[in-house]
UniProtKB/TrEMBL annotation:
TM helices/strands, residue ranges: none
Lineage: Bacteria, Pseudomonadati, Pseudomonadota, Gammaproteobacteria, SAR86 cluster
NCBIfam families: HAD-SF-IA-v1 (TIGR01549)
GO BP term, example: DNA repair
Example of a GO cellular component annotation carried by this entry: cytosol
Keywords per UniProt: Carbohydrate metabolism, Hydrolase, Magnesium, Metal-binding
Species whose genome carries this gene: SAR86 cluster bacterium
Protein name (record): HAD family hydrolase
PANTHER family, per the entry: PHOSPHOGLYCOLATE PHOSPHATASE (PTHR43434)
Domain of life (superkingdom): Bacteria
GO function term, MF aspect, one: phosphoglycolate phosphatase activity
Keyword Transmembrane attached: no
Length: 220
């Protein structure tokens, strides 16, 4: 049985933890790849790269370096496409609606600390009626250093007047786990997301879940 924590606040990473945004990333990237005569990719190919950010995705899928003459053009085209496709097919991960309902029913606050910029994150979050009670959204726009630095998590706790020890941070990337540990929150790795496996989890020694529905077992 999973260990339970006394919890007043649950903070989520966004992409790959709270919301499955991969389908909309895929549409956007494939539109740009096709425009430039490149072969389209599948969902399984893009998922491991989403948490790395747009620059690394362009570098990997166009097979170019950051100094390539067309790098910024490809990246800007991708971001423009993504703005058009933000909320077409993204969805809460299976079981996450039950987690949110549990938090609401037990008056436990929840929010998001993400490395996704506010102009992209806010419309996605606002498109989900299930997230109407979200208390805070912290993006790179709000901090001086993004994850793995703990500044965003610390800021969220401070704004909501909740101690780190009373907070759980959930993420699907090693940088999420490092940020939560540095912020001195409880940390849970989400193996159902994009970037974690048990080998990575073992390097930090934190609890993990294989599905979103298991998160409830950590909350009392």
């Amino acid at each position: 049985m999973l260990e339970s924590y006394k919890t007043k606040l649950v903070l989520f990473d966004l992409d790959g933890t709270l919301i499955d945004t991969a389908p909309d990333f895929l549409i956007s990237l494939n539109n740009v790849l096709a425009k430039h005569g490149k072969e389209k990719i599948g969902l399984a190919q893009i998922r491991p790269h989403i948490s790395e950010g747009s620059s690394k995705m362009i570098k990997f899928f166009f097979q170019i370096d950051y100094e390539h003459k067309n790098f910024e053009m490809y990246k800007n085209e991708f971001l423009s496409e993504y703005k058009l496709n933000l909320i077409k097919n993204s969805k809460l991960f299976d079981g996450m609606d039950d987690v949110i309902e549990f938090l609401d029913n037990n008056s436990i606050m929840y929010g998001i600390v993400t490395n996704k910029f506010h102009e992209y994150a806010e419309p996605i979050v606002e498109s989900f009626s299930e997230l109407k009670n979200i208390k805070i959204l912290i993006c790179p726009n709000h901090v001086s250093v993004s994850k793995p630095d703990p500044e965003g998590i610390i800021l969220a706790c401070k704004k909501l007047n909740i101690k780190a020890a009373e907070t759980i941070y959930l993420g699907d990337h090693l940088n999420d786990l490092k940020a939560g540990i540095s912020a001195e929150t409880k940390v849970i790795g989400c193996l159902y997301g994009y970037s974690l496996d048990q080998n990575i989890i073992s390097t930090v020694g934190c609890p993990y879940v294989n599905s979103a529905s298991e998160i409830i077992s950590f909350i009392d």
